[in-house]
Amino acid sequence: MLKQYFALLLTILLSSAVAQNNLIVLTEKGSLFKLFVNDAQINDSAQSEVAAANLFGDTCAVRMIFADKNIAAFDTKVLMLENGKSVSKKEFTYSLAEEKGKRKLNFISVNFIQSDTTIKAQSPETKMKKIFTDLEKQKQEQNRLKEIYPAPANCTQIISDSLLKVNLKLMRDNHTEINRVKDGKWFVSNHCINAKQLILLLAVFDRRDSKIKIAEFSYDYMEGPGNFLEVVEVFKFESDKEDLKKFYAKRIEK
User: Fold this and answer.
1) Contacts 24+ apart (CB under 8 A), 71-76
2) Closest CA to 96 of 125, 66, 119
3) pTM of this prediction?
4) Parallel, antiparallel, or unpaired: how do β-strands 85-86 and 81-82 relate?
5) What are the DSSP E strand ranges found in the chain?
6) How far, rounded to the nearest angstrom, does the alpha carbon of residue 248 sit from its chain's CA centroid?
7) What is the tens place of the pLDDT at every residue in 169-220?
8) b vs e for 194-233, b when ≥16 Cβ sit within 10 Å of the residue's Cβ?
């Protein structure tokens, strides 16, 4: 009896010392599935979002069996680490996505486990909206790093000068010119700017070649690309001006 008591006490102590977290798994396409975590079935009826609570350890085996028999079961392992470190009382969200014909669970977010009252106060629609918002932010960040920019669209409403000022400061604080160029392109491709604002943006960059890259890239995204020659005139060197004028002449011929 005493041995059993100590065995139970040891189990409790070990359990309390191990990270305890929640796991949310969902599908981008809304496919319904049953979730198994470490061989334990989590949900009885197939759903597009399943939460597994009170999981111990930093790694768990995940299996997804789909209601649609045409979709093969998916098996993988999930890490529940934050910045490479063990944590507890956190909620990890992963989404099943298909990339280049291969399926994988993409990490979406990690947050503190919400209290019961907070969870009840949230509607399922609100919770799902937040998850997909986090997913979209992750995709946007991946596109920024990979230099995958949105296609040019009609520039109808230019960015406010105050918001432009904030973004210019962020770019100035980036002391690596190559990353600053990436940030500049991402900013231009996601906002509508006019010629005067583009001139202010060019002042953020130190190198002549960086300024030219940003100017040429911005042509398709700026308001009134016919005003591009106003931008050309701020360049100091005649050779740079000539190159940009040739670029402009080729673009208006199209």
Assistant:
1) 71/31, 74/103, 76/104, 76/105
2) 66
3) 0.52
4) antiparallel
5) 20-27, 33-37, 40-41, 49-56, 59-66, 74-79, 81-82, 85-86, 90-99, 102-112
6) 34
7) 989 988 888 889 999 999 999 999 999 999 999 999 999 999 999 999 999 9
8) bbebbeebbebbeeeebbbebbebbbebbbebeebeebbe
